[in-house]
TrEMBL record, chains A, B:
Catalytic activity: L-aspartate + ATP = 4-phospho-L-aspartate + ADP
Annotated ranges, domain ACT: 275-360
Entry superkingdom: Bacteria
UniProt KW keywords: Amino-acid biosynthesis, ATP-binding, Diaminopimelate biosynthesis, Kinase, Lysine biosynthesis, Nucleotide-binding, Transferase
Organism encoding this protein: Microbacterium pumilum
Family annotation (Pfam families): AA_kinase, ACT_9
NCBIfam families in alphabetical order: asp_kinases, PRK06635.1-1, PRK06635.1-2, PRK06635.1-4
SUPFAM superfamilies, alphabetized: ACT-like, Carbamate kinase-like
Entry protein name: Aspartokinase
GO terms assigned for molecular function: kinase activity
Length: 429, 429
């Protein structure tokens, strides 16, 4: 008898039929003898519809009221889910973020969880009830106002509940059946990973893998929560995201200790843009000046390269990548300070693609980057930028080349499966 | 500077445009220098849509979860309304039933208000904010669960807030601009009343007038709250519902004490059915027996008449009226005990109409009933049943005759206006 936390995204509870299917799945878990706590997102497009309504009545909605509005979405889905379970003959109780003891700071729209006090949830579990909790929302003790957690909020709710209740596993359900060695829509021969280390998962998520939100994975890593990413539409095992202690646990060491693959997966990201600051005076402190300006603009810099200076001009070019959405503010900020910095011009390129190879095995294996560069050169794909971390190598290529690059690299590392992977549609909040 | 509580029904906040219009109205009241507390219903058909969703996932939804579900409707409307006001440059804060201190018993779906502790509302008012409260919902202290008040809930919320905050007036907005001497859809010459006593209002509401809910009027009468029923779509004064202390107050006695009309209005009701128990043994206790059975069935008996016994058979007929919706259960209950009671048969008639003449002046004026009976006889309308209270005379006629009956009686009591009244559509929750 285990305590299992399950999270269902918006696409898993999009309509009455889906809610009943999810209810059945929860009941099956209960029938198997487990205690079940469920974190649920708002139905399908509810959140977008509410946001649309808000924009119709107020150009810039008051943050406190926007959270009050959006938090109603999960109230609807969780109450319906609890009813559905109830009508199957099982006791189920739904709880709002505040009833569940999801205490956050007062940052409306992007609140951080500061404490979880699931007293009412424990009581309900002790009374044999299935517990349904509104994902994405919390409560601030000082203002006594409702807050929302922002993107990936429901995943974070689930992981935070799993940590606070010391659950055996946190199952994150979506319409994708696990973590793949690459995006199956890009690399048909991508294979589902049975397990991946949380540090690898963080690098994959940070570099384009969409299945899990970084924030939830970080929370799980910090609190030792075992995540199991799986599909709402099949009962097949998905992918386990393991921390050190899990990697050593019996569940995952039967048949000898878990052997680390050199490369866990290949992540692709078309959401980045490149900005090149041309003709920067090659004197100390200029780079610092530039990135202070960019940081002040709120833009999130990812990769940076500085060309060797052309001796004649004593000037150099500095290129960096950032999310496409941040490019405009960064360009405006830089242009505004062009005189002070003394650069010649700015080049904006949003036709780039980023490919990342991630694997904890890189620490102990050499030649990993060589394989990458060789595969790309054989395919005639030009590398524009390179950056590396302890367990990741990322390269920037033309956006049009990204898919082919991913396929050849995936093959080069021996990640190809025998058959093509099954592809599903996009996932919910 | 007064404290004004306003209630807006679902039809007043049906869409973004309506919400903005209501927001402007609230802001205007604030600009006039008043403190404003608003109770708002769910948008348009939200409640019906949520009920429909519930029925799709569960044949008989769990009451606790149904309240959790339905209470989300007001969260949406109140947050949007607060945003709209905020974007007009005024501080506005929305509060759920529990945040507003609307404490109820634990009867889900039909909770009774047991206490109102509007501490957070007072704080918000002291800080100069406009307060928006979710109508229709409350909170039970023991179970710590959300409850809903049932039909007319939002009106009751508004009146309860007005009482707890000692407001100067409770304005109930709907798409009808006040209380009329009759339903303008039935009697075109009906006139809007500038004021009506709460006891008259109770009789009118109890006998078919739809503008205000009995429950809210009773609460206002018990707590001395002054109700002003008016239209969302015009700034014209509506109808004041007065208690004794108001009738004596300066606001309503300038130009001499308020003179009571003999008849305040004519109410019509097509929602009743008649059941006749035929051939009841004319022995003591039979009536008691019959109405004990009916009461046990949960049916709500209104009028009762017993014919004089036919000496030959020593049997009599007993007829009574009740809401059409209650007829089925009452008939089933009576049929089940036919042997014990010893009556001969049951007649069910749902083609009746009830006309009521209401006026506090009846206490002091005679001949009121004569006028009624004469008017109907001249029109050739047959009276099937008669019942009276201290300030009301009700008669049952054929449903097809009800409209004409209302018109001739309205004329007979000199209630006709010079011009026809403007008619609006039905009102919200």
């Amino acid at each position: 008898m285990a305590l299992i936390v399950q999270k269902y995204g918006g696409s898993s509870v999009a309509d009455a039929a889906s809610i009943k299917r999810v209810a059945k799945r929860i009941v099956d878990t209960r029938r198997a003898g487990h205690d079940v706590v469920v974190a649920v997102s708002a139905m399908g497009d509810t959140t977008d519809e509410l946001l649309d309504l808000a924009s119709q009545v107020a150009p810039i909605p008051a943050p406190r009221e926007l959270d009050m509005l959006l938090s109603s979405g999960e109230r609807i889905s969780m109450a319906l889910l609890a009813m559905a379970i109830h009508s199957m003959g099982f006791e189920a109780r739904s709880f709002t973020g505040s009833q569940a003891g999801m205490i956050t700071d007062a940052t409306h729209g992007a609140a951080r969880i500061v404490d979880v006090t699931p007293i009412r949830l424990r009581d309900a579990l002790d009374e044999g009830a299935i517990v349904i909790v509104a994902g994405f929302q919390g409560f601030n003790r000082d203002t006594r106002d409702i807050t929302t957690l922002g993107r990936g909020g429901s995943d974070t709710t689930a992981v935070a509940l799993a940590a606070a209740l010391d659950a055996d596993v946190c199952e994150i359900y979506s319409d994708v059946d696990g973590i793949y060695t690459a995006d199956p829509r890009v690399v048909p021969k991508a294979q589902k990973l049975t397990r991946v280390s949380s540090e690898e998962m963080l690098e994959l998520a940070a570099n384009g893998a969409k299945v899990l939100y970084i924030r939830a994975v970080e929370y799980a890593r910090r609190h030792g929560v075992l995540i199991h990413a799986r599909s709402t539409f099949s009962s097949a095992e998905g992918t386990y995201v393991l921390n050190e202690q899990h990697e050593r646990s019996e569940q995952f060491t039967e048949g000898g200790p878990m052997e680390e693959p050199v490369v866990a997966g290949v992540a692709t990201d078309l959401g980045q843009a490149k900005i090149t600051v041309v003709g920067v005076p090659d004197v100390p402190g200029k780079a610092a000046e530039i990135f202070k300006i960019v940081a002040k603009s709120g833009a999130n810099v990812d990769m940076i390269v500085q060309n060797v200076s052309a001796a004649a001009t004593a000037r150099t070019d500095i290129s960096f990548t950032l999310p496409k959405g941040d490019a405009a503010v960064a360009l405006r900020a830089l242009a505004g300070d062009q005189a002070e910095v003394g650069f010649e011009s700015l080049i904006h390129d949003d036709q780039i693609g980023k490919l990342s190879v991630v694997g904890a095995g890189m620490r102990t294996h050499s030649g990993v980057s060589a394989t990458l560069f060789e595969a790309l050169s054989i395919a005639g794909i030009n590398i524009e930028m390179i950056s590396t971390s302890e367990i990741r190598i990322s390269v920037v290529v033309r956006g049009d080349d990204l898919s082919e690059a991913a396929r050849v690299v995936h093959t080069a590392y021996g990640l190809d499966g025998d058959s093509d992977a099954v592809v599903h549609a996009g996932s919910g909040r």
